[in-house]
Amino acid sequence: MNIIEIFTKSLALIFSLDKDLWEIILLSLYVSITALIFASIFGLLIGYYLAIKNFFLKNFILIILNSLMGIPPVVVGLIVYFMFASGGPLGVIQLLYTPTAMIIAQVIIIFPIVTSLSHEIFDQNWREYKDQLRSINMTFFGVLFIISKHSYFLVITALLSAFGRAISEVGAVMIVGGNINHFTRVMTTAISLETRMGNLEYAMALGIVLILLTVLIYSLVYILNKRKI
Fold first, then answer.
1. Degrees (nearest 5) of the Cα angle 148, 160, 113?
2. C-alpha separations of 144 from 115, 140, 160 in Å
3. pLDDT tens digits, residue range 49-87?
4. What residue ranges define each of the domains in the chain, with the CATH number in brackets?
């Protein structure tokens, strides 16, 4: 089977709304979007707090967060695996090889990205407008709302970048999810498995969807950055 035939059959699988294929795609979106929501809630708040407050070890925390932006996903997967394995400290709750474990792994991967990028955004705005904001005696969350509204292009860009990292991740979700059919199989792990099994049209169909999602995400990032400029 040549590449043209594989590509044609891949498109047919996508547009025929193959049940198994779209189950994998929807699970991938569910895991990554859920991870992004949790990482964003905590990451934006901590990034904002680090931007407007000065305290002991602040610079050390920022160095650690920036360093963790490049942490290998397989290492995160290994850490989460040991935490939730039967002999681990959280093994009793039996989350290993579930979508929840995959979400936790992705949260750990993208949390430093959201926190570090949001800190840079909030810090720049706080330095520029802190005198005006202090003069009107705004509350902690009131300042957060104003700064976020002023920089929402950059905030959305940071969140889209984090989502792109999450949706394309394979190492951690393979380790903690186990790539179980109809339960924890997502696009990246399915591509790896189907390629090894020789189901190239299925692997390419998932690859096409993943590439389209990635292109869409980073196109939005580019457009938002251009609008900001």
1. 80
2. 14, 7, 20
3. 999 888 888 999 999 999 999 889 999 999 999 999 988
4. 3-228 (1.10.3720.10)
